[in-house]
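ARCHIVE CARD
Drawer: 12
Card no.: 0347
Subject: one protein chain, sequence and derived structure
Cross-reference: see card 0346
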Amino acid sequence: MRMQRHNERGFVILMVSMSVLAGILTFTTTGLGRSMIELLAAQRSVAVTQAFHIAEGGVDEAIATFATAGHEFLVDAGWVRQATDDEPCVAGTPCVKTLSTAVGTVTVSVSDIGAERPLVTAEGAVGTTTMQRIEAVLELPPPLFQQPLFAADAIQLEDVVVDSYNASLGGYGELIMPSDDEYGSLNKSDPSRASSLHGDLRTNGTERWDVDLTDTTIFGSVMLGAGELEEEAYCEHGAVLVHGAPPQSQAASNLGLSPITVPDGLCAGQQLNGSATLAAGTYCYEAVSLKGSSKVVRTNGPVTIYVTDTLKVEDGAQLVGAVGGVETPSALRIEYLGEQAELKKNVRFVGTLYAPAAKMKVEENTELFGAVMVDELEGKQSTIHYDRALSDPDAGQPASRPTIRSWHQP
């Protein structure tokens, strides 16, 4: 009897122990399962975050491309018409680029590239199951050269003619196509069309004599800076004709000139002081000093020249941008970091000049085709022909960073 009670007590202890072990096992299994779920959720969260940041990087890649290539975005080698196509992009079709990162890939698509507000779609992927998509609308800055002459500080012209033409329709002096009538042009072969309103001058200046014109003809308007104008901020002497409507106006806000940033490793102290033919590309010279028969011609795609110290073209020298032998202002862009630029004595310049810190002189029968943006401008006995094609977003303007107007995750 005593043995039976002992056996029963042992059985009870065994059952209790097994129940406790079963509870512990159940708790452990539940905790392990929960931990696995939480681990998987954490991994999923990390993958989602990574995919999102990869997609953000895709949007940044599009912005960077616009910022470096400007409106020539379509010719960037890394972008193609479709993700599986090697054909270069063309206007009116989406442009696609795929990039790989250490943790995933991103496919970026840009639509409406020719518009002022293109749509960027970026899809970041980590593995085969985790994807994040961002859609962003960018706003591209307008083309830089909106008028033939801009000087941040002051403009002084004497015996100068400023007019315009459209290089995309032909050279200056050629017959203007009927479709160009809406623009008008001063044209050597058809002087009756001297009604151009695109040979404009602009300055941020508001102080006395900041625009000083003597015996000068402007086939366009004159715009002064924002703010209160001092008396005689605009002055005329002799026979001055300003054909714009209105002849003078005042800007609502001033136009800022951004400093020039030269690409790293580009400059090595070279000088350009004689005849040269430049293939398409980007160059840097400490000095460009051309005199007499010296001539620079761009014949094989767009050329950008950074000049760090001296820019002086004189005595019949020519600095010309050309495409296939056809003179084209948008084909040559000079970005000058110095403080004094000179084009004088029978010089022929075909291109654009951006020199935010420079005082520029255009003198003595110089003929300029294109546009200039400088700190201060002094012109004498010269003619300046603005190329209206420079106001086209696809004209190869100096690039600037676009802004994001809106973005969301679909």
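Annotation on reverse: The two ends are 79 Å apart (CA to CA). Residues 175-196 have pLDDT under 50 and may be disordered.
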